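[agent] plan:
  1. take the single chain provided in the ticket
  2. run structure prediction with default settings
  3. attach C-alpha cells to the ticket
  4. add a short note for the reviewer (M.T.)
[agent] executing step 1
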Amino acid sequence: MNKGQGDNPVALRDVLAHVAKRQQEYVNRLIDYVSRPSISASGKGVLDVACYIRDRMRDMGLETELIPTAGAPMVLGQWSGSDGPTLLLYGHYDVQPADIADGWVSDPFKPVVRDGRIYGRGTADNKGQHLAQLLAIEAYLSCHERLPCNVKVLLDGEEEIGSPQMPAVVAEHGDLLRADLVVISDGPVDPSGRPMISLGVRGALGFELRATGANAELHSGHWGGVAPDPMWDLVQLLATMKDPRGHVTIDGFYDEVQPLSPAGREALERLEIDVSVMKRDLQFDELAEPRERGVAERRVAWPTLTINGLHGGYGGPGLKSVLPREAVAKCTSGSWKHNVPTTSSPRYAPTWSGTHPTSASPAWGAAWNHPARRSTLPSWNPFAVRSSRHRVRSRCCGPGSVGASPFTSSPRHSASRPSRCRAEMRTSPSTARTRT
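[agent] step 2 finished; step 3 output follows
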C-alpha cells in the first residue's frame, strides 16, 4: 500500500471523522437506495436500479460501466492508480420479493427507522453492505484523493436467483475482474458483534413440484371425492420426502455427506450461539428436529430441504367451495460441499416422464435405484420419491440458478393430461459460493 495512507492511523482517523459528520446523510442515502425495488425474481425495477447505482458510483469517484448479460446487467466500478494490490468487492443490487402480506410491519419498499434499525427490503441483503463499502471509498477519496490500493466493485443483478449469468461474465471478462483479493460482505452481523470471516456457504438447488387435476376449477360440493384433488396429492407427495425426525427420505440425499472432522467439530463448539436468545427474538419455542443437533452443525455440516411456498386454490377472505385445478410447491435444498453434484455428473440430466413405481415396472424398465439409471443423474437428486399415484415430469436445468430468470425465456413442460393428477418437477442447482 502507499506509504502514509493505508498503513497510517492518522489517515484512517481523518476518514472516520469525515464519516461521523455525515452519518445521517449516509442513512438517508441508504433509505433512498432501499426504497427502489429491484426484484430479480420478477425483474421489477432491476434495470432502473442498475443505472441508479452505476450513477451513484460514478459520483463517488469510480469509473463505472454496465456489463450486459443474457439477464440483468452487472455493474462494475473501478479506481486505479495505486502501486498496491487490487481488491475486488462483490455485492448484489437485486433483492428478494417482499410484500406487506408476508408479515412486514411497514411497507418493505418504504424504509423506516425503528429502535435504531432501518427496516426495508435489501437493507441487510445486500444494499446496506455494499453501499457502506462504497461510502467508505467515497470518504477516503474525499480526505486523501487517493486510495491505498486499487479497487474494483462488482454488483450482481441476479444473486437472489442464483447468479445464473456469473459463469459467462467471468469467462468473458476475466481480465477485467482480475484481483489479488475478493471480499464478499453478504451476511448478517454475528450476535456477539465481533467481526466474522465466512470461508464458505451452502450451495442451493431449487425445484418446483406442480400437480394438476381437472382442466378447470371445480365446485367441491359436486366434485369433491370424485375428481382428483391436486392439493391433497401434492401434500401427500411432500410428506414422503421428510420424516418427523427431520430426516430427508429422498434416495441418495445423504450419500456424499461426510462426518465432521474432530478439528471441525471443535471449532463449531467454540462458536457462541445463544439458542434462547434466538428463540426469543424469532418467537418460536423449539428448534426443528433433530433437536439434539447443534445450531452451528446444522448450518454448516448438513444439507437441508425446505418448502419455500405452497400454492393452490383459493386464498382470499372467507370461504370458497373450490376444488383447484393445480397445486404448486416451490422448494430448495441447501447443499453441503460433499453432497452437491460431482464434476463427473452430466451438466444436463435428461428430461423424463413416467409414473413413479413402487417397484420395477415395464414403463421404466428398471428400478429407480438401479445403477444404470443412477449413472445418468447427478450424484443425488430430488426426484427419487416413491409414489404410485403421481404422474411426474422433471427437467434438471444444470448448475447456475435457483430460479428462472425473468430476463430469459424458459419453456414450460408439455405432456398429455393423464386421467389422474400429474406432478411436474423442475430443478436448477447452483454451485456453492465461497466467502472470504
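[agent] step 4 note for reviewer: DSSP finds eleven helices and 15 strands in the chain.
[agent] ticket updated
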